[in-house]
Amino acid sequence: MAKHNYDVLVIGSGPGGKHAAIAAAHIGKKVGIIERKPKLGGVSLQTGTIPSKALREAAFLKSRFAAKGMRRALVGSLKISNREFLQEAILTKDNIIDKQESVLLNHLMRNGVSIIPGEAKFVDSHTLEIIDLNNKTDQLSADFIILATGSRPRRPKDVPFDKKRVLDSTSILKLERIPESLVVIGGGVIACELATMFALLGVKITIVDSHKQLLAYLDEDIISNLTEHMKDMDIDIHMSTDVTEIIHAHNSVIVNSSDNHQFKSSHLIYAMGRVPNIEKLCINACGLNDNDNGWIKTNEYCQTEVENVFVIGDLAGKPSLAATAMEQGRIVIAKAFNQEYQQSKSPLPMAIYTIPELSYVGATEKELQAQNCDYIAGHARFAETARGQIIGAKKGRLKILMDRKSHDLLGVHIIGETASELIHIGQIAMGYGGKVEHLASNVYNYPTLAECYKSAALDCLNKLS
Predict the structure, then answer these.
(1) Which segments of 118-186 are extended strands (E)?
(2) 381: β partners
């Protein structure tokens, strides 16, 4: 192989790009990371995951949903105006982003990773042209090139986006005032997260979606529970409804639907999917083609048909999770340089940061039924634990799915406060061959919500007879 400027060039500084770059640096490789934006971290840090979760946390703490149980004593201190709240929350969110960017920069510099500002495009399979902010061009080459350019909100041409009243999932996080009312187009993860967050700030929310059910791939009991919470928040949900027209009026947005409904609100967010950031890469120059949806085909190692080019993160398609991207970053470096890498035995956990949180790992009941699997479902409710009563978690629940014969864990599904943290107990147990008996006999701190694992496991075992 010809001598190149770098052993590895990574395009994109999000979670996947960062971990790939550092993994390569750890084994002594010369690494450069190319970033076209003025700030590091990609969508995850700058405009997506971290900003939305920071604002979600603020909305939760301000809401009546947080002021339950013993926390009612604090409710008086939370009474500030929505405008003051949003200003304070945005300031706090920006501080978190700045601190995380500083940590990212420190990690890259400490590991000797070169940071290259500019827009990259392929010249050939080993060479990139870099156009910097001053429109100066340079060419760099590498043995291996990793694409980690992420994705962006889908913005159809017939939707009159203006970043003021008609918004996507990026621009809505930059609002300086809380909307009076908000129509949410979509029923997926982003739509549900933003709907519950703004509903708790007193915004009148209407969800309009063409699917039959919100988050239809999730466990039905969990979705039923989430729907109850949404009704408690006065969220108006219209499923199996197609949007036929969006009209941007002077001080409002009007949505016409296929069932002859008309929805009027002060603001609208369109949250119907994301598209890959691929157009400016000129992938044809290196011998690659994207498929019909813009995603690039890869193998189990995130390797493309061009063997020295890898794709990770959102650009690789589902599951489009930051945690997945980080793992993919490590995997591709091990593959590229023939390094041994022990991948986790545990299945991937998924978390949805609605209010309340949802999290799951493994199969749903619907999937097990389709496989004709003989299983048992065990249930536990947060309200039956001392910790749940202390924090006022009346509707949270944890469900375990167990193979009737082997007692293997087949799935864990949780809704409620800290669901995204609790799921890891079930994830590790599943990954390392744990049986339901292990969860039933384990000793948990008291009082904790984790005790629900013992209750749900015992519920499974009690149903064996």
Answers:
(1) 119-124, 127-131, 137-147, 151-153, 166-167, 181-185
(2) 397
Tallying the residues shown for the chain, one arrives at 465
What's the rounded Cα separation, in Å, for the pair 445 and 380? 16
The closest of 404, 352, 350, 346 to 375, measured between CA atoms, is: 404
Record the pTM.
Answer: 0.86
pLDDT in tens, 254-273: 999 998 899 999 999 999 98
Using DSSP's 3-state secondary structure scheme, residue 293 falls into: coil
Residue appearing with tokens 């962006």: 152
Closest CA to 401 of 432, 378, 425: 378
Whether 357 and 420 have beta carbons less than 8 Å apart is answered as yes
321 alpha carbon, distance to own chain's centre: 5
Does residue 73 carry a pLDDT above 70? no
More confident residue, 423 or 57: 423
**Closest Cα to residue 174, out of 272, 14, 42, 55?**
55
SS (H, E, C) 52-112: HHHHHHHHHHHCCCCCCHHHHHHHHHHCCCHHHHHHHHHHHHHHHHHHHHHHHHHHHHHCC
pLDDT digits (tens, 9 = 90+) for 350-396: 999 999 999 999 999 999 999 999 999 999 999 999 999 988 888 89
Q: Domains of the chain by range and CATH?
A: 6-152+275-336 (3.50.50.60), 166-272 (3.50.50.60), 350-462 (3.30.390.30)
Cis before residue 319, ω within 30 degrees of 0? Answer: yes
pLDDT digits (tens, 9 = 90+) for 205-255: 999 999 999 998 999 999 999 999 999 999 999 999 999 999 988 889 999
In a 3-state reduction of DSSP, which class is residue 148?
coil
| pLDDT in the model for residue 270 | 96
- DSSP letters, 199-257, are HTTT-EEEEE-SSSSTTTTS-HHHHHHHHHHHHHTT-EEE-S--EEEEEE-SS-EEEEE
